[in-house]
Design a protein that fits this description.
Keywords: Annexin, Repeat. Belongs to the annexin family. The structure is a single chain. It is built from seven helices and no strands. Helix 1 packs antiparallel against helix 2, helix 1 packs across helix 3 and helix 6 runs antiparallel to helix 7. It starts with 21 loop residues before the first helix and ends with a helix.
Length: 125
């Protein structure tokens, strides 16, 4: 008789903000991206203090309000690792995980730890 596996519950580290307003968030991001210079603190606050679902709403509201892609505007204004992290935070979770799996298998050596971590830590999305 096989042993029963324990039930594991996970809790995201970034949770939905109860008073989230996608329009205000999109406005803050637009203001910090236009003109000379970019306010990195605003980008960090908006992308790391909201859940993935809220970031998707924020991205859609930005598109609707300004007729521009938030992802493309960030690509123009940012660079390096900060750009990579910001764009990753704006991806829907399934797309992000698919990209990670693709990159883990790309090249001469497969990153088996990455593949195992993704496959074993995700549940139905």
């Amino acid at each position: 008789m096989a042993a029963e596996l324990p039930t594991i519950t996970t809790r995201p580290t970034i949770v939905s903000q109860p008073n989230f307003n996608a329009e205000k968030a999109a406005t803050k991001l637009h203001r910090c991206l236009k003109g000379i210079g970019t306010d990195a603190r605003v980008i960090i606050d908006q992308l790391t203090n909201h859940s993935n679902q809220q970031r998707q709403e924020m991205k859609q509201k930005y598109q609707n309000m300004y007729g521009r892609s938030l992802t493309e505007d960030l690509k123009v204004e940012l660079g390096g690792h900060f750009e990579d992290v910001s764009l990753s935070l704006l991806q829907p979770l399934p797309e992000f995980l698919a990209d990670c799996l693709y990159l883990a298998g790309k090249g001469l050596k497969t990153d088996e730890k990455c593949v195992i971590q993704i496959l074993c830590s995700t549940s139905e999305m």
